[in-house]
């Protein structure tokens, strides 16, 4: 099928490459000419595991092309995906300006029946609103349908997740659009990926309810971690003991510095806002959001409690990205910790395997960027692990100790084994590791 994807960010680009891999002919459109130039030169504009080889493959097969021109991009497309940003406004509601602009731009380009598929995360009611906006902007009456098709990929595993989704959700009342969406996803449905066909409102809410539930799991386990520290219990063991119960499951039970990223913080707030606008209160989601804010602040207090006043001290921070295997810094807990330590007068040396360039754009020359962990640890009074990159599990602790002014590791991702680190002469603190053994 001939497909256009508008918005070549984390979701749009992976969607474009994934659909090309599934055998479709895909044009990616983005208003950012720097991004499109990089893509045309076979370069991914951001780091996402396994994405660049996939892009290269389909730029070569010709199944994937890129343009900044929406008009050119959507010409003759049977299906137009929208995957632009839907950031939060200060009151927690969603800024729909990008998606509404795109809808208005698509309208005049429609000539025959087209399915417009929204992949952006949007409040309930937006799919129908897009229909109205598009209809207002067509040059003459032309048939089209707007379908809600929320995306559940995880940054850092986005390519795998797109190709192997847990489910595909299609929200539309139109039988014609349903048939076309089934044809589009046939390669996935052949692999027995569960398909949920429903109305747009249900599809839109599935996305928010899923993200709010996952965020709740994180806030829940972070509070249990605080209790572990108070009572002398070991959080990873508690989490394992919980997760072996099939009704609970082992995923999303790792304690850490609070959730960040471009989705959970904004999507929980958007769901709270949506419920309130219908006179409903989602007390659990509100608590999830409040706990996350508190946990993030508590991380700074924890570092200062262990380290003493940071003024004049050098601190090595391992990880800028909000999670491993991405260079995405949006709402990264590492950034708020770094800002807090800088305000308290510390000097910061940072390492991240993929996000140093993105970090420079945000932090400028306020910190020192280091190519490896050992350079970052030079003269440091503590190493603080903020992102769960696998390589931080394999630190050469003896070498690390020779570089540091003080042998302290504060492991906000529980990557290391306390006994091993302490055996190398470090003071070690993790999250919820209150075990006295
Ligand atoms: P992003 O900011 O990385 O990408 C959005 C892209 O849209 C940018 O490249 C921007 O230049 C482009 N764009 C904006 N307006 C445009 C226009 N008028 N014409 C052409 N291009 C335009 O965002 P993202 O992380 O890919 O998220 C996109 C949507 O998907 C959001 O609604 C998000 O909530 C949702 N989502 C994100 C994830 C994730 O992990 N990032 C997962 C699931 C769903």
UniProtKB/TrEMBL annotation:
Domain UDP-glucose/GDP-mannose dehydrogenase C-terminal span(s) in chain numbering: 316-418
Binding sites annotated in the UniProt record for NAD(+): 30, 35, 86, 121, 155, 266, 330
Gene3D superfamilies reported for this sequence: Cytochrome c1, transmembrane anchor, C-terminal, NAD(P)-binding Rossmann-like Domain
Keyword Glycoprotein found: no
SUPFAM superfamilies the UniProt entry points to: 6-phosphogluconate dehydrogenase C-terminal domain-like (SSF48179), NAD(P)-binding Rossmann-fold domains (SSF51735), UDP-glucose/GDP-mannose dehydrogenase C-terminal domain (SSF52413)
Pathway field: Nucleotide-sugar biosynthesis; UDP-alpha-D-glucuronate biosynthesis; UDP-alpha-D-glucuronate from UDP-alpha-D-glucose: step 1/1
Keyword NAD listed: yes
Gene Ontology BP terms: polysaccharide biosynthetic process; UDP-glucuronate biosynthetic process
Gene Ontology MF terms: NAD binding; UDP-glucose 6-dehydrogenase activity
Active site: 263 (nucleophile)
Enzyme Commission code: 1.1.1.22
Catalysed reaction, written as an equation: UDP-alpha-D-glucose + 2 NAD(+) + H2O = UDP-alpha-D-glucuronate + 2 NADH + 3 H(+)
Annotated binding of substrate, by residue: 152-155, 207, 252-256, 260, 323
Keywords: NAD, Oxidoreductase
Pfam families (UniProt xref): UDPG_MGDP_dh, UDPG_MGDP_dh_C, UDPG_MGDP_dh_N
Record-stated family: Belongs to the UDP-glucose/GDP-mannose dehydrogenase family.
The name this protein goes by in its record: UDP-glucose 6-dehydrogenase
């Amino acid at each position: 099928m001939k497909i256009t994807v508008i918005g070549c960010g984390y979701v749009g680009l992976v969607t474009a490459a994934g659909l090309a891999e599934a055998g479709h002919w895909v044009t990616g459109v983005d208003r950012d000419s720097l991004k499109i130039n990089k893509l045309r030169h076979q370069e991914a504009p951001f780091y996402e595991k396994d994405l660049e080889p996939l892009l290269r493959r389909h730029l070569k097969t010709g199944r994937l092309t890129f343009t900044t021109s929406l008009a050119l991009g959507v010409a003759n497309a049977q299906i137009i995906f929208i995957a632009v940003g839907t950031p939060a406004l200060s009151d927690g509601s969603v800024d729909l300006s990008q998606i509404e602009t795109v809808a208005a731009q698509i309208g005049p380009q429609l000539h025959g029946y087209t399915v417009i598929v929204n992949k952006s995360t949007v409040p309930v009611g937006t799919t129908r609103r897009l229909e109205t906006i598009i209809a207002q902007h067509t040059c003459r009456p032309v048939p089209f349908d707007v379908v809600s098709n929320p995306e559940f990929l995880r940054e850092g595993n986005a390519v795998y997740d797109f190709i192997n989704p847990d489910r595909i959700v299609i929200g539309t009342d139109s039988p014609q659009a349903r048939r076309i969406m089934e044809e589009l996803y046939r390669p996935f449905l052949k692999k027995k990926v569960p398909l949920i066909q429903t109305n747009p409102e249900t599809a839109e809410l599935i996305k928010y309810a899923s993200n709010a539930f996952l965020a709740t799991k994180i806030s829940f386990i972070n509070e249990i971690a605080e209790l572990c520290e108070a009572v002398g219990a070991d959080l990873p063991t508690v989490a394992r003991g919980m997760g072996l119960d099939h009704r609970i499951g082992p995923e999303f039970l790792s304690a850490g510095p609070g959730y960040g990223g471009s989705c959970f913080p904004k999507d929980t707030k958007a769901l709270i806002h949506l419920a309130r606008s219908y006179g409903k209160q989602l007390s659990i989601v509100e608590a999830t959001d409040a706990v996350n804010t508190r946990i993030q602040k508590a991380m700074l207090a924890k570092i200062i409690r262990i380290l003493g006043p940071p003024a004049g001290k050098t601190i090595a921070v391992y990880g800028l990205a909000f999670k491993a295997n991405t260079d995405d810094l949006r709402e990264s807990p590492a950034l708020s910790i770094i800002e807090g330590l800088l305000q308290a007068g510390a000097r910061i040396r940072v390492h991240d395997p993929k996000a140093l360039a993105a970090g420079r754009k945000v932090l400028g020359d306020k910190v020192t960027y280091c190519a490896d962990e050992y350079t970052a640890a030079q003269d440091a009074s503590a190493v603080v692990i903020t992102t769960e990159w696998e390589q931080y599990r394999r630190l050469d602790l003896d070498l690390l100790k020779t570089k540091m002014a003080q042998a302290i590791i504060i492991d906000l991702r529980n990557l290391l084994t306390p006994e091993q680190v302490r055996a190398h002469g470090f003071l070690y603190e993790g999250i919820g590791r209150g075990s006295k053994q």
